[in-house]
Amino acid sequence: MDTHVYLAIIFAAVLHAGWNAVLKANSDRATNVLILSVVQGSVALPLLAFLPQPSVNSWPLILAASFLHCGYKIFLMKAYDYADLNQVYPLARGLAPVIVTIVSILFLSAQFGVSTIASIAMISIGIIVLGITKAHNKKMSPLAWFFTCGTAAFIASYTVVDGIGVRLSEAPSAYVIYLFLGDAIATTVYFGVTRSADFLVHAVSSWRSGFFSGILSLGAYWIAVWAFTKAPIAVVASLRETSILFAVLIGTIFLKEPMTSLRWASIGLIAIGAIAIKI
Fold first, then answer.
1. What is the pLDDT of residues 62-75, one digit of tens each?
2. Within 112-206, where are the H helices?
3. Cα separation of 33 and 123, whole Å?
4. Are 161 and 60 in contact (CB under 8 A)?
């Protein structure tokens, strides 16, 4: 992997951690999810005039990915109904790269050396352990596990679909813009059908709270999708999840969240994996 691609993915991980830290301060996650999607779609729409059209072959994947990104949000919110964010998020994000790696090997004819697989494993294990140590005394119900694993499956699915789709598109930026537009439409329709008019009015009036997060999120995933054209999908997916490392550091330094020796060890494992994957 070229150094500039590696650094771009790490920068995307920092952006991802940044918008998650902003949203963490607001407990109204449903409103945040809707605002995030609408902001992304609103920013994407005017950019269409300046970009070429993606190839015809990529359109089915853009459509599929739009629904998968929406499904990810729905399952994530459902998971939060049954378990804490600190349980759900690390488990879902840690499992996803493992699924992507397995799918890449079995169905995409990807070949990885032992060191690459070991690096991906270190990153995923470190992320999962972070979640376990944060909420070690809280048990998860079967429904919590169902929605958490479902969230991981959605992350892995849209990652693989986007990785294939952007390569077929011949226009990575256009692919991302149409993806965000499709995701915004699907998410808005979902909330329009499942939520009251009062909720939608409240969300519209609260758009400022999610605007900055929406911009950061769009930038973070734009870089990740571009990186799919430059490096193996599983490697990009794994490096992208190092965002949780930066999220923990942000929480420790700026939000004064407590740290334990095991959590520091987990951060070290993620960092070693991220460095080793480049070597």
1. 999 999 999 999 99
2. 114-134, 142-169, 172-194, 197-205
3. 26
4. no
